[in-house]
Write a structure and sequence with these properties.
mainly alpha
Length: 145
C-alpha cells in the first residue's frame, strides 16, 4: 500500500493517470533526442483535451446559431445534441481514426486514446451545455428584442 509521502511525490489524479498510461504505451524516441529523456507523442497525450476544447468552443457557436434561428425548448436541445455528436464524429474521422486504424485497432475503437468508447462519444455532451445555454439565451434575447 502506498504511503502518504509517495502520494505527495506522485499524486494520483485522473488526468495524470490517463496521461501516464497513454504516454508510456505510445512513446517513441526520435533519433535526435537522448534515450534517457521522456518522450511524448503530442497527439496521443493531448487528444482528449483537444476534443474537450473543441466541444466547448463549438457549444458556444451552436448556442449563437440556435438563438439566431429562434429555436425554443426541445428543438434547441435537439439541435445541440445533433451538432455535438456531428462534431465528435468529424473529430473521430479526422484525428482519431487514421492513427487508430494504422495501429491495427478496429473501426470505431477509441481505446488508443480514451478509456472507453462511451467516454469519447458522450463525454462532451454535458461539458459544453452551460456555454450552449448561455449563448443560446443571449442571442435569442438579442434577436427577439
Amino acid at each position: 500500500m502506498p504511503t502518504e509521502k509517495e502520494f505527495q511525490i506522485a499524486p494520483i489524479v485522473p488526468e495524470s493517470v490517463m496521461h501516464n498510461t497513454k504516454a508510456s504505451q505510445l512513446c517513441r524516441f526520435p533519433t535526435s533526442l537522448p534515450t534517457h529523456l521522456p518522450c511524448y507523442e503530442l497527439t496521443s497525450v493531448r487528444l482528449p483535451q483537444a476534443l474537450s476544447n473543441l466541444q466547448n468552443l463549438t457549444a458556444s457557436i451552436f448556442g449563437a446559431a440556435a438563438g439566431i434561428l429562434g429555436l425554443e425548448s426541445y428543438s434547441g436541445f435537439l439541435f445541440y445534441f445533433i451538432f455535438t455528436l456531428l462534431t465528435t464524429a468529424l473529430f473521430y474521422f479526422i484525428r482519431v481514426a487514421p492513427t487508430s486504424l494504422k495501429a491495427g485497432n478496429a473501426m470505431f475503437d477509441t481505446s488508443r486514446y480514451y478509456r472507453s468508447s462511451f467516454e469519447f462519444w458522450s463525454g462532451g455532451l454535458l461539458g459544453g451545455m452551460a456555454g450552449y445555454i448561455l449563448t443560446w439565451t443571449l442571442f435569442y434575447g438579442l434577436v427577439r428584442a
